[in-house]
Amino acid sequence: MNNEAEKRIAAKLAKTMAMLCVRNTHLETLHAGKTPETKAGDWSDVTVVDAYGQHIAWTDVSRISDKEMHDLMRDIVNRLYTFHLCADEPGLKAEIEKWMAVSGRWDEPEIDTMMLNQKGGAV
């Protein structure tokens, strides 16, 4: 297989896996809330007021809790695992084909050089 064909296949697979294994997970629940707006464009004009009356700059707010991150990562890992082990099963195969068409309209992926150059992983 030539390099261009390999890249096309990898891109299609990456986008389909992102749709099935990342996007359609607990991430949708996290994304479902109201989104604040910024007039400044850099979020410096947006704050969150917590239960104790503290005003926290939007850029300093953690927008996902440890439990939410745990749940999200568990969803993603389980879906990647299922994708790899069960991609030939008829039901999943149909879902893959359906979402492949949708994700085909996404931007083309690029090599993540930061991932290639990591000297350690996230905790």
Which descriptors would you attach to this protein?
123 residues, mainly alpha, single chain, two-stranded antiparallel sheet
Question: Any overview of this molecule?
Answer:
The protein is mostly helical and 123 residues long. It has one domain (8-27, 43-110). 53% of the residues lie in helices and 5% in strands. It is built from five helices and two strands. The chain has helices at 3-23, 27-31, 66-86, 90-103, 113-116, and strands at residues 47-49, 55-57. A two-stranded antiparallel sheet has the order 1-2. A hairpin with a 5-residue loop joins β1 (47-49) and β2 (55-57). α1 (3-23) crosses α3 (66-86) and α1 (3-23) packs across α4. The longest helix has 21 residues, at 3-23. It is elongated and about 60 Å long. The two termini are 37 Å apart. The mean pLDDT is 90.
Main sheet: strand order: 1-2
Radius of gyration: 19 Å
> Largest sheet, if any?
2 strands, antiparallel
The tally of structural domains comes to 1
Write the layout of secondary structure elements.
Layout: H1 3-23, H2 27-31, E1 47-49, E2 55-57, H3 66-86, H4 90-103, H5 113-116
Antiparallel strand pairs: 1-2
In brief:
Helix content is 53%, strand content 5%. The protein has helices at 3-23, 27-31, 66-86, 90-103, 113-116; strands spanning 47-49, 55-57.
